[in-house]
Each structure stands twice: as structure tokens, then as C-alpha cells.
User: What shape does this take?
Amino acid sequence: MNASLGAQRNAVLAIVDNDLPPKVGFSTTTFTINEGADPAVVSVLLSGPSGISITVPYTLNTSLVAIRGATASPDDTLISGVLFFAPGQTQQTIALVVADDAIHTGNKFISLTLGTPQNATLGLRPLAVVTVVDDEPEDVIGATVSTIYLPLISKSNQLSDN
Assistant: This one.
């Protein structure tokens, strides 16, 4: 068989990427950490691997007055950051460390919110709540109070009429 290529020996092909971007969300909507304990690890997952990098902004808000009926405190803080997923990576984590305040304040709540991701879309769980369990005992109202009586010591300076 005698065959030969004609004048054009190269071809340009275009590959259209029609894959849907992965979805990003928290692994669950609730997490718990004990005050002063090891860090709570909050997992953020992609629905599948991607061939390109993905960034996801997030916000932590320690003021959940409207959501949990808690009262605002001076500790209320708004913190933000960005998670980076390398190509092929499907999980990232946010580590939360909560200092022990040594006074009973009741449980506190931290909301976590994922922002608009780059090269992905938000999935089913873009919001999560972390419960921070207070480890100090609650003050008991109406408890018995011990009373200690000290002897009354007085000194009298009497003037004599002599």
C-alpha cells in the first residue's frame, strides 16, 4: 500500500470543557468544641476533584444573637479567611481554638459561612454552627450560704468622775 500525507501534516483540535464545576460545602452543619480543649476541626468538602485550583472565602462570626437567642458580648468577633484547594484535592479544614475564660458564661455559638467560591459553586451546606461548650460550673441561685460569725470586739474608754 502506497500512502502519503498531503501538504498539511498538523491539525489543531479544541477540547471544550463541559464538565460542571464541583460543589463546595461543610461536611455537616453542626460541630462542637469544649472551651479550652484541642482545636475543633471543621471540614469543607468538594463534591469531586477538579483539574484546576479552587478558592473559597469563609467568615466566622461569634455573634449569633438572632440565630440562638444568645446575648452579645465583647468577645463577638468577625474573622475571615480563604481556603485553597489544589487540583485533585477534595477536602480542606478550618481549625478553631477557643480559649478558656475561667468564668461561667454558658455555651457560645460560632457561625461559619462560605462565600462565593472561584472555580466551584456553593453546595447544600454553605452554613455551619459550632457550639462552644462552657466548662465552668453554673452559678446556683438560691444556694445555701454559710455565715461565719466573728466575736464582736470593742474597747470602751470610760472617763472616771473622780
